[in-house]
Amino acid sequence: MRIYGREGDTLEYYSKVFDLPVELIIDSNPHIENPCMIYGEKILIPGYTIEEFKSDYKNLYDRFRLPLDAIILVNNHTAAARNEVMVPRRVTERLINTEKPYDYEKMKADLTLLNTVYPFFNTACIGESVQGREIVEIAFGRGQKVIHYNGAFHANEWITTAVLMRWLNDFLLTVTNKWIWNGLDSMELYKLKQLSIVPMVNPDGVELVHKGEQAAEGKWDVVAMNEGICEFYRWKANIRGVDLNNQFPANWEIEKERNKPKAPSFRDYPGEKFLTEPEAIAMQQLAYTRDFEKVIALHTQGEEFYWGYNGKEPEASSFIASEFAKRSGYKSVRYIDSYAGYKDWFIDTFRRPGFTIEIGKGINPLPLSQFEKAYNDSLGILLASLYM
Ligand SMILES: [Zn+2]
User: Fold this and answer.
1) Could you say which of 25, 174, 175, 225 is the most buried, measured as most Cβ atoms within 10 Å of its Cβ?
2) Does the pLDDT of residue 38 top 70, yes or no?
3) Range(s) for CATH 3.10.350.10 in the chain?
4) What whole-number distance in Å separates Cα of residue 172 and Cα of residue 114?
């Protein structure tokens, strides 16, 4: 919602009028250099939308219990002659529905919608997929340390994108409404850490799973890579048949030598070399530039998580893992016989905590009937990763 700064007003005053944490108003308006000098400035107020009514101010106050000044502020620059009053409406429900087949376009449209109402988060393109789709990072929060989350490294695990997008919506909803969330104060978390979320690392692969062979635009023989099958529900790789979570230089050679496909395939092929794929390169670069304190990679399935890599994980990882297990009910597993994944490389390179979380249980792709439980279970982990 947009208003214009009046002479003598401050952002602090608007935080009282709209009952919002002032930090969220400041972060929504990075163009404002001095929060006490805002006359004539366009100011975005997060967590509100506007509705128009044919009525007078007095009736509206009785109806919505808003300070009169909140209504005056949004009507400042409109034609009063229209006999209509614009009323700020606090958003108190989720804006996006993630409980559906979740593809790249839906994610982009949902991000645009959320960002319109919650302009205090930023989105950035951190690289492009093989087919030129933007790999999007969402960032917000005020702390020094950056906690990173990612989903859909594997194409048919796109439900992890939906989980992260709902989590984002719930974070924005609870922080603007000052709600306690799972026993935690969202605003405290917002001030404590910065969040980096890449909800869909492998957009081309996700599109292939949802839309079939046409998604390859005739450029890659995806049916051959898929053992001649025209349904792509088993597909994990990127569009040219490289498994992105087998692409990182952390014992990559061991993965290469294993009994893995020796050519591009719907799953497990680690590539000719490590880091040949643009999606994997973008994720490596991001870790270097953002200097993550911790990495949480969402995958499906198994209701368990992995947190070790060759003894290089820091001591803190075991402590965090036990909190994750308590909060989610998932099984904590230190080592698995697998290498060259993003969390492996992150632990190996930075000696900081990295986790692969296998949400849900069943056969991939998990059915949407699992979404609610998978979200509720993983919520404990996503939140604990901020305060641990
Ligand atoms: Zn996976």
Assistant:
1) 175
2) yes
3) 2-90
4) 9
Neighbours of 275 (CB within 10 A): 15
When pLDDT is cut at 50, 70 and 90, the band that residue 82 belongs to is low
Pairing state of beta strands 2-4 and 134-141? Answer: unpaired
Ligand 1 centroid to residue 321 C-alpha, Å: 19
Counting Cα atoms < 13 Å in the Cβ hemisphere of 292 gives 33
Which amino acid, 306? Y
Say whether pLDDT at 68 is over 90. no
Instruction: Name the fold adopted by 2-90.
Output: Membrane-bound Lytic Murein Transglycosylase D; Chain A (3.10.350)
| Res. 100 pLDDT band, cuts 50 70 90 | very high
Q: How confident is the model at residue 78 (pLDDT cuts 50, 70, 90)?
A: low
CATH annotation of 104-204+275-387 = 3.40.630.10
Annotated active-site residue in 358, 372, 375, 387: 358
Give residues with Cβ within 8 angstroms of 175, minimum separation 6. 21, 24, 186, 187, 189, 190
Q: Tokens standing for 121?
A: 């988060």
The Å distance, Cα 174 to ligand 1 centre, comes to: 29
Distance between CA atoms of 179 and 123, rounded to whole angstroms?
24
Q: DSSP letters along 340-353, please?
A: S-HHHHHHHHH-S-
Q: Is 14 a catalytic residue?
A: no
CA 260 to the chain's CA centroid: 31
Mean predicted lDDT score pLDDT of the chain? 95
pLDDT tops 60 at residue 248: yes
When pLDDT is averaged across residues 204-213 and rounded to a whole number, the result is: 98
The rounded Å distance from CA 280 to ligand 1 centre is 14
Residues 6 or more apart from 51 whose CB is under 8 A from it?
A: 86, 87, 89
Give the range among 195-209, 258-272, 278-292 with minimum mean pLDDT: 258-272
Is there a catalytic annotation at residue 358? yes
